[in-house]
Amino acid sequence: MSRRRHPVPAVVAPVIDVAGGAGQHVQALRGLFPYLGQTHMRTHYSNETGTELIGSEIILCGWVQRRRDHGGVIFLDLRDREGLIQIVVDPSQEEAFALAEQVRSEYVLRVRGPLRARPAGSENPDIASGAVELQAVAIEVLNRSEPLPFPLDEDGISENLRLKYRYLDLRRPEMAGRLRLRHQVNRYLRRYLDERGFVDVETPILTRSTPEGARDYLVPSRTQPGHFFALPQSPQIFKQLLMVGGLERYYQITRCFRDEDLRADRQPEFTQVDIEASFVDEAAVMAIAEPMIRGLFRELLDVDLGDPFPRMPYAEAIRRYGVDRPDLRNPLELTELTDLARTVEFKVFRAAAELPQGRVACLRVPGGADLSRTQIDAYTEFAAIYGAKGLAWIKINALDGGSEGLQSPIVKFLPETFLQEMLQRSGAQVGDILFFGADRAKIVNETLGNLRNRVAADRGLLEGGWRAVWITDFPMFEYDDQEDRWVSTHHPFTAPQEGSLGLLQSHPEKALARAYDLVLNGNEIGGGSIRIHRREVQEQVFAALGIDPEEARDKFGFLLDALSYGAPPHGGLAFGLDRLVMLMSGADTIRDVIAFPKTQKAGCLLTDAPNRVAERQLRELGIRLRPGVLDDGQAS
Fold first, then answer.
1. What phi and psi, each to the nearest 5 degrees, are found at residue 31?
2. Is the separation of the CB atoms in 574 and 253 below 8 Å?
3. Are 246 and 262 in contact (CB under 8 A)?
C-alpha cells in the first residue's frame, strides 16, 4: 500500500534527545516527518523514496535482503516493512564500504545518504523505489544475524520449520502483507459498526462450561479446588445478557476457544467478529451484515459481490448440492433418485431408498466419460472418507440405445424405465459420467457434496470471481447417532420459527430454526440466528434436547432468570475473522493469516506449548496426574 510522501530538507538534522531540552526542535521534525513520532532512527520507509526526493539526504533502516559485490561497488537490497530499496556503497566512502564488506543477509542496518536516480536501463518497475537508489554515506550495523535456518525468498519450505521460526517467517513479504490485510479488515469492520451505533464491549474469558457443540478448554481454579473455568467457545450467552441489559447494539472482535480436531480452516483459538442487536428480525440482521461484507470487499479488494446476496433454504442447498455451504461457482448439481430407487430390485439402491432417512442421488459430470478406471478408483477412495461403502458410476456412451449405450457394472441390474428417467432427470449427455450415492441421507449428502467440489477442482469447472449466498431455514435439531439423541443444529439458544414451536416435542425433526449462514465460495464465513427471548420457549427447547429442568437450572439458571426480566427480542451473527482473511488474501490455510498459530495437533512449535508443569503447580491446583498420562507417569 503506497503512502503519501513527505518533503524533507537537503540535510536531515541528527537524532535529538527530547529530555536534553530540544523538545521544540523534535516537534518541528515531527511536522516534517510524521514517522518520527514513532522512531527517530529513520526519515522514510523504502516506498516513500520517490523521484521528488532526488538530491535529498535521507535515513533508512531495515534488513539486508541480499548483498552483491560488483567489481568494487557493493549493492545492498535493504528491506523494511514497506518494501525494498537499493543501497549503493562506493569505495570512496571508506568507513561505509568497510562495513558493507562485512554485511551479510538479514543484518539490521541504518543507512544515511543522498537519494539519486538509478542509471538509465537499471530501473526496477517491480518495486516502489525502483527508479531511485540511496548512495550510502554512513552505515550503522544495528545488529548482526546468524545464517537463517531457511531462505526467506524461496517457496516450498516445510510448514513446521516456518512455525518453529515464525518470527523469521513473518519477515517474508507475503506473510507481512497478510497481517496488514488482517489489520485493514479489523479497522474497516470497527469503523462500519461504530458508525451504526454498535458498542464494543469485552466479555469474560474465564467463564463456565456450557454445551456449544465442541469440547471446552478447562482452567482449574486454585482458589476453589475441584472447580473449573472454561474458556469461551463464543460470547453467546454474555451477548444475550447484554441485550437483556438494554445495550441494544453490541459488537466485539474477540478470541474464542474450542478443543476440537483441527483442519486447514480451524484453530483451537480463533478470532470472531461478534454482532448482536435488539428489536431485530432475520431481515434486519442481514441488512446490517450484508452491506458490511459487500463494502469490505469493495474497499479492500475492489471486488463487487453483487447486491443483494441470493437466499437459499437449507433443504434446497442439501437437495441440490449435498452441503449447507454450497460453492455457487461450481455448476455441478445432484439429482434426486430416491423415489425411483424404491421400484428397482437392485438391493444397493432399493435398501437405501427404503431407509427412514435414506437417499439415492447421482452427480452428473459433463465430459466425465474420459475418466480412467484409476481416476474413478481414486474418487472411490475419496468417497470412503465420508462413510460411503463404494461409488457406483455409469458412463454415457449413447442416448438412443437404452442400456446398450451405457457403460457400468451396475447397468445390468437396473430396468430400462429407471435408466431412462435417470437420464432425463440428470440431463446427462453423451460423454458424461454419473456418480451415485445410496445410503443414509447424511452419508450420501456428505459424499456427493464433497465429491462435487473435488471433481470441479480437478477438472477446472469452477467459475472465477466471488459468489455469496445466504442459507436460511435451518432445522432446529439434528440427530446424533453416537449419543442417540437430538442435538442443536446451531446452539440451544436459537429461536424456533413461528410454526415450529408446537413441533419441538412431537416432531423435532420437522422443526425449523430462525437461523442463517453467509456462505462465500463454499466457505461459511458467518452465521447467526434470532435468539430465544422468552423463558418458557427456552425451557421447551431444553426439554426437546433432553435437558431436564434440574439440569437446565444448574447449567443455565442465570440465563433463564435473565429471560424472566423483560428480555427484548434480539438476534445477531458472528463472522470468523481468520477464515474471512484467509479467503481475501488467497492463503491456503488460516494458519497463514494468524501471527502465531497452532499446528494441526494444537501445539505451538515456537514456544513448545503445551508443556509439562512443575509438581508444585499441580499441587496448588489440587491436581494429580494418573500414571501413564505422561511418558514417565510423572509431572516434571
1. -65, -35
2. no
3. no
What is the distance between the terminal CA atoms of the chain, rounded to a whole angstrom? 49
The torsion region of residue 372 among left (phi > 0), alpha (psi -120 to 50) and beta comes to beta
Write out pLDDT tens, residues 190-221.
999 999 999 999 999 999 987 656 789 999 99
CA atoms of 61 and 139, how far apart (whole Å): 10
Burial class of residue 120 in the structure, from the number of CB atoms within 10 Å of its CB (0-12 exposed, 13-18 middle, 19+ buried): exposed
Longest CA span, the chain: 98
213: cell is 457443540
Does the predicted TM-score (pTM) go above 0.85?
yes
List helix spans (H) across 247-304. 282-301
With CA atoms as reference, report the closest residue to 552 among 542, 566, 544.
Answer: 542
Q: What amino acid occupies position 166? A: R
Find, among 486, 483, 462, the residue nearest to 475 by Cα.
486
Q: CA torsion 156→159→165→169, rounded to 10°?
A: 50
CA distances in angstroms from 510 to 6, 313, 533, listed in the order given: 65, 14, 22
Q: Is 102 helix (H, G, I), strand (E, B) or coil?
A: helix
What's the pLDDT tens digit per position in 224-281? 999 999 999 999 999 999 999 999 999 999 999 999 877 656 899 999 999 999 999 9
Q: How far apart are CA 288 and CA 293, in angstroms?
A: 9
Q: How far apart (Å, rounded) are the C-alpha atoms in residues 177 and 164?
A: 20
CA dihedral 171, 174, 178, 180 (to 10 degrees): 60
Element (H, E) at 83: strand 83-89
> Which residue is it, cell 439423541?
485
189: enclosing H helix or E strand:
helix 173-195
Which residue matches cell numbers 505451538? 604
What residues contact residue 244 under an 8 Å CB cut-off, 6+ apart? 562, 563, 565, 566, 567, 568
Give the residue carrying C-alpha cell 526542535. Answer: 25
Contact 253, 189 (CB under 8 A): yes
Cell digits of residue 179: 497481517
Q: Which residues contact 387 (CB under 8 A, 6 or more apart)?
A: 439, 443, 446, 447
Retrieve residue 472's grid coordinates: 436460511
Distance, in Å, from the CA atom of 151 to the CA atom of 172, rounded to the nearest integer, reads 10
Distances (CA, A) of 249 to 216, 252, 288, 598: 28, 11, 11, 33
* Residue 328 cell numbers, joined: 455457487
Residues whose CB is less than 8 angstroms from the CB of residue 306 and which lie 6 or more positions away in sequence, other chains included: 294, 468
